[in-house]
Amino acid sequence: MTFYSELAEAIEHGAAASISRWAQGVLDDVAVGRHPINAVSHPLGFLCLPVHRSGEQGVCIHLWGSRWQRAALTTSPAHCHSWELRSWVLAGELHNQIVRVIDDTESPTHRVFEVHSSAAGDQIRPTGRLVRHEVATTVTYRAGEPYQLSAGVFHQTLVPDTEELVATVALGTTRAGAVDLSLGGLRTTGHQMRRVSFDVRRTREAAAFARQAVAAQVPDRSINTPPDPSTGQQ
User: Fold this and answer.
1) How does pLDDT run across 77-109, given as a tens digit for each residue?
2) In terms of C-beta density within 10 A (0-12 exposed, 13-18 middle, 19 or more buried), how is residue 109 classed?
């Protein structure tokens, strides 16, 4: 069983204590330099700690909070992934809004853009698809709760308390042939976005701060006890 599958199983079974221990261990390792990674400021408003990558599968810890300056966003927050998302809220509260996208060539409000990501940043490419959109549902998730989202579903994430730290673990499995999409302005042209990486000091500080927030949560449910992901390879 791989590290990814062990963590996915822990989320599937609601093993809150195991997931929290795993996250605290990872954040401790990053904070003291045992796991040398650089946090990345994502335009959608969170800080990403890229914990693990193997083929089409990846594991990140995402952090929202006012202490980190957000990279500029050149499209709207409404987007969809090219990968299947399985996530667990480690600390705080967030709202996930499912967005209904409606093709409309007569009175559109947005254009659909393809987002092609690499180590150098994001290539934002306009398509000919013109649309309008509306929020279909809003679901609240709090610490100790899982959520998942299929590839290709437009959504946007809101953090109601901008002063509160929100932390999640995000598991992603890329779906063959799928493309990341975002809704942008009708007159927005193609462009390149560079993601800003934190240096070692700022990454360690962010990890230490997040570790405290995660440790402060008291997991109140553990449906089962699958293999503990904290023992897996990173």
Assistant:
1) 999 999 999 999 999 999 999 999 999 999 999
2) middle
